Amino acid sequence: MPTLQDVAKKAGVSTATVSKVLSNTPYFTEETRLKVMQAVEELGYMPNLAARALSSGKTRIIAVVFPYVYDAIFTDPLVLRILEGIEAECGKFGYNILLSTPRLTTRGVDARYRQLIMSGYIDGVIALDNVPFASVIEPVRKKGIPAVAIGYYEADYCVRSDDFSGTLQMMRYVTGLGHRQIGIIGIAENLHYSIQYRLRGLKAGAAEANLDYENFPRVDGDFSTTSGSDCAAKLLEQNPHLTALICLNDRMAMGAIQYARTIGRDVPNNLTVVGYDDIPMAAAFSPSITTIDQQAPELGRAAAHILFDVLDGRSPHSVELPTHLIIRQSSASPASG
Amino acid sequence: MPTLQDVAKKAGVSTATVSKVLSNTPYFTEETRLKVMQAVEELGYMPNLAARALSSGKTRIIAVVFPYVYDAIFTDPLVLRILEGIEAECGKFGYNILLSTPRLTTRGVDARYRQLIMSGYIDGVIALDNVPFASVIEPVRKKGIPAVAIGYYEADYCVRSDDFSGTLQMMRYVTGLGHRQIGIIGIAENLHYSIQYRLRGLKAGAAEANLDYENFPRVDGDFSTTSGSDCAAKLLEQNPHLTALICLNDRMAMGAIQYARTIGRDVPNNLTVVGYDDIPMAAAFSPSITTIDQQAPELGRAAAHILFDVLDGRSPHSVELPTHLIIRQSSASPASG
DNA sequence: CTGAAAGCGCTTACAG
DNA sequence: CTGAAAGCGCTTACAG
Lengths: 337, 337
Description:
The structure is a homodimer. Chain A is α/β, with parallel strands linked by helices. The first copy, chain A, has three domains: about 5-45, Orthogonal Bundle (434 Repressor (Amino-terminal Domain)), CATH 1.10.260; about 60-160 and about 295-320, 3-Layer(aba) Sandwich (Rossmann fold), CATH 3.40.50.2300; about 165-295, Rossmann fold, CATH 3.40.50.2300. Helix content of chain A is about 45%, strand content about 15%. Chain A has 13 helices and 14 strands. In chain A, the strands form four sheets. Chain A has a six-stranded parallel β-sheet, covered by helices on one side. Chain A has a four-stranded parallel β-sheet with strand order 9-8-10-11, with helices on both faces. Chain A has a two-stranded antiparallel ribbon with strand order 3-4. In chain A, α7 (about 140-145) links the parallel β5 (about 125-130) and β6. The first copy, chain A, is elongated, with a radius of gyration of 25 Å. Chain A starts with a helix and ends in an 11-residue tail after the last strand. At the A-B interface, α4, α5, β2, α6 and α11 of A face α4, α5, β2, α6 and α11 of B. Chain A binds a DNA duplex through α2 and α4.
């Protein structure tokens, strides 16, 4: 592998000059630039990033941190969409992605993750930080490198989806269809901050429609399709009069729809079932699922953009992204009977 | 941040000794080990990986390469499962994952990817390498770092799923149910090497059942659920007598099932539809989908294991993983009428 | 078993 | 605008 030295020798200049030309400092003539670039070309020179990292303190690598909770990272389609947004932005700005999936316990993050953060390998961090009992951002700020949290943890820079408005929109829509007997398939609030906001949105929506939210039966699942079926079973056995189920994610909505089918309740004619997230499968499912689009790729893109701003010395603002109601086939007015 | 120097001073030994203790070479007494470890502890020392990389030539980072074709990386659940397997193995062996999603064109891979490979940042590569018109492994072998390909490209080390046997099993099963009028929802063979093997498996299976594979109508989709619906429409309009559709992935099978529903053909009673891959949604779909499990996480795990063997100086063998038929609700014997 | 010293390939004040 | 030189924090023969 040719080094900076080789390029310098070939171009007849010093390594300092080569370095300056390559890093686009303004201090050189067009003539030397040409000489250097030609030598680079002929030698097929590529910078050694490790050396660059050691001497400059910059690696052009960012860590993307998806905490490993409940195996959710590797089965949740949303995660991949967020990653997609981050990757797109990284491509534009010339950063690489180091993927980290630390294990979270109530005693904090694992040692390997700590080591990574302290290693000098990364310039910044984008982290999904929504698990109430442990923050992955905290070790990062301790090390003093820039971090952007996707979630509700207090961090210098955050990107959030407006979960409150999302479920508020949904509740307005469902009550607007005429539903009054509504069941909730939720998720334990201590698992995920977003859930707390989604529940508040539901409550606010119920209040707007003069319904007592506390009377809505609610059973909690664990994000999975299977749990959606189980929750729907519990809910509908005890409350057969329900005309609508609001689920806090799409996969549980799919599970609920499947359960409904097994007991002969047609969706949407005999039961409305709605979801949240708008994962790709929500449109493809049968019936296609009415849901809230929380713009996952955009979430990732915004986080990356903020991080790069910070790394370039700017002071960006945190971002909250709006949600959108996507009306599909799984919802309808309650049957008149 | 404390450095090796600081640790050495505190422990009253040389930096060389500290380095040896930390990297587990056998040359030191228990006494010095204790001194060193105590200093490490007290200082909260963590090695600077960039420095380590520069001087040793090893980074403990591997690149995981998912070529960006047809946006498939970020919508394909299988990708995430493979990544899951790789991540699990990396955790055990102390490697980090640098995620790379190069754009492939007929003119090869993009410049950013080339730069990454040449950068000295990575010890090895695991790559999905299945796109006939461009290999992402080739630049890696040119650089001379170890690489494991998941796919059919000729590489020193490969991990493959036995696609041929997968579809062979499936065809045996479907014909065993009594189906003779079978439609194929395929994928263009020049898009993906696996597809070529899957098609051969189908052909072999048809031959075993004394059926002429060439008579099976076939329409090609693009992996997506939507394309599955479209293909099913074309197939069933022109060949209403078909009793079974074999789809080369699960998402297209889901699309096909939905289309069947719109024209009043019940799956499985009035039409058998089977898939391939066993993505998580295949079990959750309604009806749940008969499919081939290609053990995606295991694929990733095996690839990582092979790579670490090579990096440790061993000479592992390439691996071919068996596939498993998963029988669920979307398949049945053809209606007698 | 231990340490002095060179070296990995860059970047960055600093002087000119 | 250009270059000599120090330095980033480790590892690795080598000598003892």
